[in-house]
Amino acid sequence: MASKAMVWDATGQKFYETGVSKGGLYLQDETGAYSKGVAWNGLSSVAENPSGGEETKIYADNQKYLSLYSAEDFGATVECYTTPDEFDACDGKKTIAKGVTIRQQDRKTFGMTYQTILGNDTKKDEYGYKIHIIYGAVAKPSSKTHSSTNESPEASTMSYELSTTPVAVTGSKSTAYLEISSVDVGEAAMAAIEKVLYGDATTDPRLPLPDEIAQIITEAQAA
């Protein structure tokens, strides 16, 4: 009879997540869809900052009666060395003449994707990867420092605080964040969803909503 006891640090069961790559930007159009996407080069870090879910304690009969919890919110901090030209509209910029840009304009809502590496103790970084998707993002104004060149040159970085508005998910609460793991989804399904997200020779990249993502992956797994 197989043992039911807990086992710690078994071979192949030491997991980790690292890196950030393959950033993508998708502007939201007037219908709420995320149209043609573009590559986001120079993405150096994405810090996921969920908030909310705070407890409010309700007392009755001289004792704790129940707990109510506030709605959860999702935010993120994105650091990068550069942004796509299309991000200017998300950063409150507007070109009024060739080479002339003004700021403090309305900021467009966007979605974004990025990948992280999934590793373990046997396959290392080849274990798998994860696609992360953020919906309904708005970038807050950020600071940027320009420093004199010296004997220790550094490239200037930009940092953006993102707030989000969640999108609907059938049978679940709305969400602004979704992740897809290659370890669980499988190679064929990952290829199907990447064709949509990243495009190919005949298909423009776009960002589908959660219900469509679930449908694409389910159909690819069943094929």
Helix content: 10-25%
- Computed over alpha carbons, the radius of gyration is 21 Å
* Broad shape: globular
Biggest sheet: strands, sense, closure? 8 strands, antiparallel
Structural class: mainly beta
Span between N and C termini?
37 Å
Count of helices? 3
SSE string: EEEEEEEEEEEEEEHHH
Instruction: Give start-end ranges of low-pLDDT stretches.
Output: none
Describe the structure.
- The chain has 223 residues and is mainly beta.
- It contains three helices and 14 strands.
- Helix 2 packs across helix 3.
Q: How are the secondary structure elements laid out?
A:
Elements: E1 15-27, E2 38-40, E3 43-52, E4 55-60, E5 63-69, E6 72-80, E7 94-97, E8 100-102, E9 110-120, E10 124-139, E11 158-164, E12 167-169, E13 172-175, E14 177-181, H1 182-185, H2 187-198, H3 210-222
Brief summary of the model shown:
Strands 1, 2, 3, 6, 9, 10, 11 and 14 form an 8-stranded antiparallel sheet that branches. By secondary structure, the protein is mainly beta.
Features:
mainly beta, eight-stranded antiparallel beta sheet, 3 helices, 223 residues
